[in-house]
Design a protein that fits this description.
377 residues; alpha/beta; four-stranded antiparallel sheet; 13 helices; 14 strands
Length: 377
Protein backbone atom coordinates (compact mmCIF):
# COMPACT_ATOMS: atom_id res chain seq x y z
CA UNK A 1 0.00 0.00 0.00
CA UNK A 2 1.56 3.22 -1.18
CA UNK A 3 -0.26 5.75 1.00
CA UNK A 4 -2.70 5.78 3.93
CA UNK A 5 -6.43 5.63 3.27
CA UNK A 6 -9.31 6.91 5.39
CA UNK A 7 -12.47 4.78 5.52
CA UNK A 8 -15.54 6.94 5.01
CA UNK A 9 -18.36 4.43 4.54
CA UNK A 10 -19.14 0.73 4.93
CA UNK A 11 -22.18 -1.01 3.50
CA UNK A 12 -23.20 -4.64 3.95
CA UNK A 13 -25.61 -6.36 1.58
CA UNK A 14 -27.36 -9.72 1.41
CA UNK A 15 -28.76 -11.40 -1.68
CA UNK A 16 -30.74 -14.65 -1.80
CA UNK A 17 -32.06 -16.88 -4.58
CA UNK A 18 -34.02 -20.16 -4.44
CA UNK A 19 -32.44 -23.17 -6.10
CA UNK A 20 -34.23 -25.07 -8.84
CA UNK A 21 -32.17 -28.13 -7.92
CA UNK A 22 -31.46 -28.40 -4.15
CA UNK A 23 -27.82 -29.03 -3.33
CA UNK A 24 -27.03 -32.14 -1.26
CA UNK A 25 -24.10 -33.06 0.92
CA UNK A 26 -23.58 -35.43 3.81
CA UNK A 27 -24.85 -33.00 6.47
CA UNK A 28 -27.92 -31.53 4.79
CA UNK A 29 -29.69 -30.05 1.79
CA UNK A 30 -29.31 -26.48 0.56
CA UNK A 31 -32.49 -25.09 -0.99
CA UNK A 32 -31.29 -21.53 -1.63
CA UNK A 33 -28.06 -19.64 -2.22
CA UNK A 34 -27.15 -16.41 -0.47
CA UNK A 35 -24.40 -13.86 -0.87
CA UNK A 36 -23.12 -11.65 1.95
CA UNK A 37 -21.15 -8.75 0.45
CA UNK A 38 -19.42 -5.71 1.92
CA UNK A 39 -18.56 -2.47 0.14
CA UNK A 40 -15.95 -0.19 1.71
CA UNK A 41 -15.48 3.36 0.46
CA UNK A 42 -12.59 5.72 1.17
CA UNK A 43 -12.68 9.47 1.61
CA UNK A 44 -11.25 9.97 -1.88
CA UNK A 45 -14.14 8.02 -3.45
CA UNK A 46 -12.21 4.82 -4.09
CA UNK A 47 -13.97 1.61 -3.10
CA UNK A 48 -13.58 -2.14 -2.75
CA UNK A 49 -15.80 -5.20 -2.41
CA UNK A 50 -15.53 -8.19 -0.11
CA UNK A 51 -17.50 -11.33 0.63
CA UNK A 52 -18.07 -13.36 3.78
CA UNK A 53 -19.26 -16.92 4.29
CA UNK A 54 -23.03 -17.43 4.21
CA UNK A 55 -23.55 -20.86 2.66
CA UNK A 56 -24.87 -22.77 5.64
CA UNK A 57 -27.28 -21.89 7.02
CA UNK A 58 -28.29 -19.36 4.37
CA UNK A 59 -30.29 -17.30 6.88
CA UNK A 60 -27.06 -16.53 8.73
CA UNK A 61 -26.16 -13.98 6.05
CA UNK A 62 -28.43 -11.30 7.53
CA UNK A 63 -26.83 -11.66 10.94
CA UNK A 64 -23.35 -11.22 9.51
CA UNK A 65 -24.47 -8.18 7.52
CA UNK A 66 -26.01 -6.59 10.60
CA UNK A 67 -22.86 -7.33 12.55
CA UNK A 68 -20.83 -5.40 9.98
CA UNK A 69 -23.19 -2.43 10.08
CA UNK A 70 -23.76 -2.28 13.85
CA UNK A 71 -20.41 -3.44 15.23
CA UNK A 72 -17.64 -3.12 12.64
CA UNK A 73 -18.74 0.05 10.87
CA UNK A 74 -18.69 2.22 14.03
CA UNK A 75 -15.33 0.72 14.96
CA UNK A 76 -13.45 1.57 11.77
CA UNK A 77 -15.36 4.28 9.87
CA UNK A 78 -13.26 7.44 9.95
CA UNK A 79 -10.09 5.49 10.68
CA UNK A 80 -6.99 6.07 8.58
CA UNK A 81 -5.09 2.87 7.87
CA UNK A 82 -1.66 2.23 6.46
CA UNK A 83 -2.06 -1.43 5.44
CA UNK A 84 -4.90 -3.98 5.28
CA UNK A 85 -2.99 -6.08 7.82
CA UNK A 86 -3.03 -3.15 10.26
CA UNK A 87 -6.80 -2.86 9.90
CA UNK A 88 -7.19 -6.59 10.42
CA UNK A 89 -5.35 -6.31 13.74
CA UNK A 90 -7.47 -3.32 14.70
CA UNK A 91 -10.75 -5.10 13.94
CA UNK A 92 -9.67 -8.25 15.75
CA UNK A 93 -8.55 -6.34 18.85
CA UNK A 94 -11.59 -4.05 18.83
CA UNK A 95 -14.02 -6.98 18.83
CA UNK A 96 -12.21 -9.10 21.40
CA UNK A 97 -14.57 -8.50 24.31
CA UNK A 98 -17.64 -8.83 22.08
CA UNK A 99 -16.32 -12.15 20.76
CA UNK A 100 -15.84 -13.44 24.30
CA UNK A 101 -19.24 -12.17 25.40
CA UNK A 102 -21.35 -13.62 22.59
CA UNK A 103 -19.24 -16.60 21.53
CA UNK A 104 -20.11 -16.09 17.86
CA UNK A 105 -16.58 -16.75 16.65
CA UNK A 106 -17.52 -17.88 13.17
CA UNK A 107 -19.86 -15.02 12.33
CA UNK A 108 -17.41 -12.45 13.71
CA UNK A 109 -14.48 -13.87 11.76
CA UNK A 110 -16.57 -13.98 8.59
CA UNK A 111 -17.65 -10.35 9.00
CA UNK A 112 -14.02 -9.33 9.50
CA UNK A 113 -12.95 -11.41 6.50
CA UNK A 114 -15.46 -9.68 4.25
CA UNK A 115 -14.18 -6.23 5.26
CA UNK A 116 -10.56 -7.33 4.86
CA UNK A 117 -11.14 -8.58 1.31
CA UNK A 118 -12.90 -5.30 0.47
CA UNK A 119 -9.96 -3.29 1.81
CA UNK A 120 -7.47 -5.25 -0.28
CA UNK A 121 -9.65 -4.73 -3.35
CA UNK A 122 -9.85 -0.99 -2.59
CA UNK A 123 -6.09 -0.72 -2.20
CA UNK A 124 -5.48 -2.53 -5.49
CA UNK A 125 -8.04 -0.41 -7.34
CA UNK A 126 -6.43 2.78 -6.01
CA UNK A 127 -3.06 1.55 -7.22
CA UNK A 128 -4.50 0.56 -10.61
CA UNK A 129 -3.11 -2.96 -10.24
CA UNK A 130 -4.59 -6.48 -10.28
CA UNK A 131 -5.10 -7.72 -6.75
CA UNK A 132 -2.51 -10.50 -7.06
CA UNK A 133 0.23 -7.93 -7.65
CA UNK A 134 -0.56 -6.36 -4.28
CA UNK A 135 -0.60 -9.74 -2.51
CA UNK A 136 2.56 -11.41 -3.76
CA UNK A 137 5.12 -11.85 -6.48
CA UNK A 138 4.47 -15.27 -8.02
CA UNK A 139 2.42 -13.82 -10.87
CA UNK A 140 0.86 -17.20 -11.64
CA UNK A 141 -2.12 -15.82 -13.54
CA UNK A 142 -3.14 -19.11 -15.19
CA UNK A 143 -4.81 -21.36 -12.60
CA UNK A 144 -5.85 -24.96 -13.19
CA UNK A 145 -9.43 -25.52 -12.03
CA UNK A 146 -11.32 -28.48 -10.67
CA UNK A 147 -15.08 -28.96 -10.86
CA UNK A 148 -16.51 -29.41 -7.37
CA UNK A 149 -19.79 -30.12 -5.57
CA UNK A 150 -20.70 -32.97 -7.93
CA UNK A 151 -23.24 -35.48 -6.64
CA UNK A 152 -24.67 -38.75 -7.87
CA UNK A 153 -27.73 -36.84 -9.03
CA UNK A 154 -25.97 -33.98 -10.84
CA UNK A 155 -22.71 -35.30 -12.26
CA UNK A 156 -24.21 -36.74 -15.45
CA UNK A 157 -25.25 -33.21 -16.40
CA UNK A 158 -22.32 -31.24 -14.97
CA UNK A 159 -19.27 -33.31 -15.93
CA UNK A 160 -19.85 -32.81 -19.68
CA UNK A 161 -20.17 -29.05 -19.05
CA UNK A 162 -16.83 -29.10 -17.23
CA UNK A 163 -15.17 -31.19 -19.92
CA UNK A 164 -16.38 -28.77 -22.58
CA UNK A 165 -14.41 -26.08 -20.69
CA UNK A 166 -11.33 -28.31 -20.72
CA UNK A 167 -11.56 -29.16 -17.01
CA UNK A 168 -9.94 -32.50 -16.16
CA UNK A 169 -10.20 -32.56 -12.37
CA UNK A 170 -13.42 -33.44 -10.52
CA UNK A 171 -14.65 -33.68 -6.92
CA UNK A 172 -17.60 -35.82 -5.86
CA UNK A 173 -19.71 -35.49 -2.72
CA UNK A 174 -19.76 -38.78 -0.80
CA UNK A 175 -20.77 -39.93 2.68
CA UNK A 176 -24.15 -41.35 1.69
CA UNK A 177 -23.39 -45.02 2.34
CA UNK A 178 -20.85 -47.47 0.93
CA UNK A 179 -22.84 -48.75 -2.04
CA UNK A 180 -24.12 -45.31 -3.05
CA UNK A 181 -20.62 -43.79 -2.79
CA UNK A 182 -18.94 -46.58 -4.77
CA UNK A 183 -21.58 -46.45 -7.50
CA UNK A 184 -21.33 -42.66 -7.77
CA UNK A 185 -17.53 -42.75 -7.98
CA UNK A 186 -17.63 -45.44 -10.65
CA UNK A 187 -20.02 -43.30 -12.67
CA UNK A 188 -17.80 -40.24 -12.25
CA UNK A 189 -14.73 -42.17 -13.41
CA UNK A 190 -16.60 -43.19 -16.56
CA UNK A 191 -17.91 -39.67 -17.20
CA UNK A 192 -14.55 -38.01 -16.58
CA UNK A 193 -12.60 -40.32 -18.86
CA UNK A 194 -9.06 -41.66 -18.82
CA UNK A 195 -6.43 -39.49 -17.18
CA UNK A 196 -8.86 -37.33 -15.19
CA UNK A 197 -8.01 -36.38 -11.62
CA UNK A 198 -10.66 -37.54 -9.15
CA UNK A 199 -11.22 -36.49 -5.55
CA UNK A 200 -14.04 -36.97 -3.04
CA UNK A 201 -15.48 -34.75 -0.31
CA UNK A 202 -16.89 -36.60 2.69
CA UNK A 203 -18.03 -33.49 4.59
CA UNK A 204 -16.93 -35.03 7.92
CA UNK A 205 -19.41 -37.92 7.62
CA UNK A 206 -17.13 -40.79 8.68
CA UNK A 207 -15.52 -41.62 12.00
CA UNK A 208 -11.91 -42.28 12.92
CA UNK A 209 -12.86 -45.95 13.37
CA UNK A 210 -14.20 -46.51 9.86
CA UNK A 211 -12.61 -43.82 7.65
CA UNK A 212 -9.63 -45.86 6.49
CA UNK A 213 -11.92 -48.71 5.44
CA UNK A 214 -14.30 -46.35 3.63
CA UNK A 215 -11.37 -44.76 1.77
CA UNK A 216 -10.12 -48.21 0.79
CA UNK A 217 -13.53 -49.14 -0.58
CA UNK A 218 -13.44 -46.08 -2.84
CA UNK A 219 -9.85 -46.46 -4.04
CA UNK A 220 -10.80 -49.96 -5.19
CA UNK A 221 -13.07 -48.19 -7.70
CA UNK A 222 -10.67 -45.45 -8.85
CA UNK A 223 -7.44 -43.75 -7.72
CA UNK A 224 -8.09 -40.58 -5.73
CA UNK A 225 -5.91 -37.47 -5.65
CA UNK A 226 -7.31 -36.67 -2.22
CA UNK A 227 -10.10 -37.48 0.23
CA UNK A 228 -11.50 -34.33 1.79
CA UNK A 229 -12.68 -34.13 5.40
CA UNK A 230 -13.21 -37.86 5.93
CA UNK A 231 -13.56 -37.29 9.69
CA UNK A 232 -14.76 -34.36 11.83
CA UNK A 233 -12.43 -31.42 11.31
CA UNK A 234 -11.98 -30.92 15.06
CA UNK A 235 -10.50 -34.40 15.53
CA UNK A 236 -7.20 -34.33 17.41
CA UNK A 237 -4.00 -34.02 15.36
CA UNK A 238 -3.03 -37.49 16.54
CA UNK A 239 -6.22 -38.91 15.02
CA UNK A 240 -5.52 -37.20 11.70
CA UNK A 241 -1.93 -38.42 11.83
CA UNK A 242 -2.98 -42.03 12.40
CA UNK A 243 -5.48 -41.88 9.56
CA UNK A 244 -2.96 -40.29 7.22
CA UNK A 245 -0.53 -43.11 7.94
CA UNK A 246 -2.92 -45.90 6.93
CA UNK A 247 -5.24 -44.29 4.35
CA UNK A 248 -4.94 -45.43 0.74
CA UNK A 249 -5.26 -41.86 -0.60
CA UNK A 250 -3.93 -38.45 0.51
CA UNK A 251 -6.03 -36.54 3.01
CA UNK A 252 -7.33 -33.00 2.54
CA UNK A 253 -8.85 -30.60 5.08
CA UNK A 254 -8.76 -27.03 6.29
CA UNK A 255 -11.99 -25.25 5.44
CA UNK A 256 -13.16 -25.89 9.00
CA UNK A 257 -9.86 -25.34 10.81
CA UNK A 258 -10.09 -22.08 12.69
CA UNK A 259 -7.13 -19.71 12.71
CA UNK A 260 -3.63 -20.18 11.37
CA UNK A 261 -2.44 -21.92 14.54
CA UNK A 262 -4.86 -24.77 13.83
CA UNK A 263 -2.82 -25.60 10.71
CA UNK A 264 0.54 -25.74 12.49
CA UNK A 265 0.39 -29.43 13.54
CA UNK A 266 -0.45 -30.50 9.99
CA UNK A 267 2.24 -28.37 8.40
CA UNK A 268 4.68 -29.94 10.85
CA UNK A 269 3.63 -33.58 10.59
CA UNK A 270 2.46 -33.44 6.95
CA UNK A 271 -0.26 -36.02 7.51
CA UNK A 272 -2.77 -33.86 5.58
CA UNK A 273 -1.20 -33.41 2.18
CA UNK A 274 -3.73 -30.92 0.83
CA UNK A 275 -4.55 -27.94 3.06
CA UNK A 276 -7.67 -25.91 2.28
CA UNK A 277 -8.20 -22.70 4.26
CA UNK A 278 -11.12 -20.55 3.15
CA UNK A 279 -10.66 -16.77 2.91
CA UNK A 280 -14.35 -15.98 3.49
CA UNK A 281 -14.63 -18.20 6.59
CA UNK A 282 -11.81 -16.60 8.57
CA UNK A 283 -8.74 -14.49 7.99
CA UNK A 284 -9.70 -12.86 4.71
CA UNK A 285 -6.64 -12.19 2.58
CA UNK A 286 -4.50 -10.70 5.35
CA UNK A 287 -4.76 -13.83 7.45
CA UNK A 288 -4.05 -16.14 4.56
CA UNK A 289 -0.81 -14.70 3.17
CA UNK A 290 1.59 -16.07 5.77
CA UNK A 291 -0.34 -19.35 6.06
CA UNK A 292 -0.37 -19.97 2.32
CA UNK A 293 3.35 -19.31 2.07
CA UNK A 294 4.00 -21.69 4.97
CA UNK A 295 1.96 -24.44 3.32
CA UNK A 296 3.83 -24.05 0.04
CA UNK A 297 7.20 -23.91 1.80
CA UNK A 298 6.44 -27.21 3.56
CA UNK A 299 5.93 -28.92 0.21
CA UNK A 300 2.23 -29.40 0.84
CA UNK A 301 -0.54 -28.48 -1.55
CA UNK A 302 -2.23 -25.12 -0.97
CA UNK A 303 -5.75 -25.54 -2.37
CA UNK A 304 -8.02 -22.92 -0.79
CA UNK A 305 -11.57 -24.09 -0.27
CA UNK A 306 -14.23 -22.01 -1.94
CA UNK A 307 -17.98 -22.37 -2.38
CA UNK A 308 -19.57 -18.93 -2.51
CA UNK A 309 -20.21 -16.01 -4.84
CA UNK A 310 -18.03 -14.43 -7.48
CA UNK A 311 -16.38 -11.79 -5.26
CA UNK A 312 -14.76 -14.33 -2.96
CA UNK A 313 -13.99 -16.67 -5.84
CA UNK A 314 -12.03 -14.05 -7.72
CA UNK A 315 -10.26 -12.91 -4.54
CA UNK A 316 -9.27 -16.54 -3.91
CA UNK A 317 -7.97 -16.86 -7.46
CA UNK A 318 -5.84 -13.73 -7.03
CA UNK A 319 -4.45 -15.09 -3.74
CA UNK A 320 -3.41 -18.32 -5.46
CA UNK A 321 -1.87 -16.36 -8.32
CA UNK A 322 0.13 -14.28 -5.85
CA UNK A 323 1.46 -17.22 -3.80
CA UNK A 324 2.04 -19.77 -6.55
CA UNK A 325 2.33 -23.49 -5.94
CA UNK A 326 0.59 -26.48 -7.50
CA UNK A 327 -2.86 -25.97 -6.01
CA UNK A 328 -6.10 -26.26 -7.97
CA UNK A 329 -8.78 -23.56 -8.00
CA UNK A 330 -12.12 -24.87 -6.75
CA UNK A 331 -14.90 -24.12 -9.21
CA UNK A 332 -18.40 -25.02 -8.01
CA UNK A 333 -20.50 -25.88 -11.06
CA UNK A 334 -23.84 -26.11 -9.28
CA UNK A 335 -26.57 -23.49 -9.59
CA UNK A 336 -25.49 -20.11 -8.16
CA UNK A 337 -26.49 -16.78 -9.72
CA UNK A 338 -24.12 -14.94 -7.40
CA UNK A 339 -21.17 -16.79 -8.87
CA UNK A 340 -22.34 -16.45 -12.47
CA UNK A 341 -23.30 -12.77 -12.31
CA UNK A 342 -20.40 -11.62 -10.11
CA UNK A 343 -17.29 -11.84 -12.23
CA UNK A 344 -18.61 -14.31 -14.83
CA UNK A 345 -15.84 -16.78 -13.92
CA UNK A 346 -16.79 -19.37 -16.54
CA UNK A 347 -15.98 -16.87 -19.26
CA UNK A 348 -12.39 -16.77 -17.98
CA UNK A 349 -11.79 -20.53 -18.42
CA UNK A 350 -9.49 -21.63 -21.24
CA UNK A 351 -8.54 -25.32 -21.59
CA UNK A 352 -9.46 -25.97 -17.97
CA UNK A 353 -7.53 -23.00 -16.58
CA UNK A 354 -8.80 -19.67 -15.30
CA UNK A 355 -6.92 -16.81 -16.96
CA UNK A 356 -6.94 -13.84 -14.60
CA UNK A 357 -7.67 -10.49 -16.25
CA UNK A 358 -5.34 -7.57 -15.67
CA UNK A 359 -8.09 -5.26 -14.41
CA UNK A 360 -7.53 -3.39 -11.13
CA UNK A 361 -8.53 -5.13 -7.91
CA UNK A 362 -10.21 -8.53 -8.05
CA UNK A 363 -12.24 -7.32 -11.00
CA UNK A 364 -15.78 -7.65 -9.63
CA UNK A 365 -18.14 -4.69 -9.07
CA UNK A 366 -21.57 -5.93 -7.90
CA UNK A 367 -23.10 -2.54 -8.69
CA UNK A 368 -22.46 -3.30 -12.35
CA UNK A 369 -24.03 -6.77 -12.15
CA UNK A 370 -27.66 -7.84 -12.57
CA UNK A 371 -28.43 -9.11 -9.06
CA UNK A 372 -30.46 -6.30 -7.46
CA UNK A 373 -33.71 -8.30 -7.76
CA UNK A 374 -32.25 -10.81 -5.29
CA UNK A 375 -31.31 -8.24 -2.64
CA UNK A 376 -32.96 -8.67 0.75
CA UNK A 377 -30.72 -6.51 3.01
Amino acid sequence: MTEPVTISRIEARVYRAPLVTPRRNAFGVMTERSAFLVRVEASDGSFGWGEGFSNWPAFGAEYRARFVMEMLSPLITGQTITTPQALMKQMTAGLRSIRIQCGDHGAIDQAIAAVDIAIWDLVARRAGKPLHEMLGTAGQTRLTCYASALTAGTQADLVPVARDMGIRHFKLKVGFGTDADRNALGELAALAGDGAGLTVDVNQAWSADNAAARIGELTEIAPLNWVEEPIPADSAPSVWRNLGRIASAPLAAGENFWGSAAFDPYIDNRCIRVLQPDIIKWGGLSGMLQLGNAINAAGLRFCPHYLGGGVGLMATAHLMAALGGDGLLELDLTENPFRDQLGSPFSLIRDGDMILPDTAGHGVDPDSCDIEAFRIF
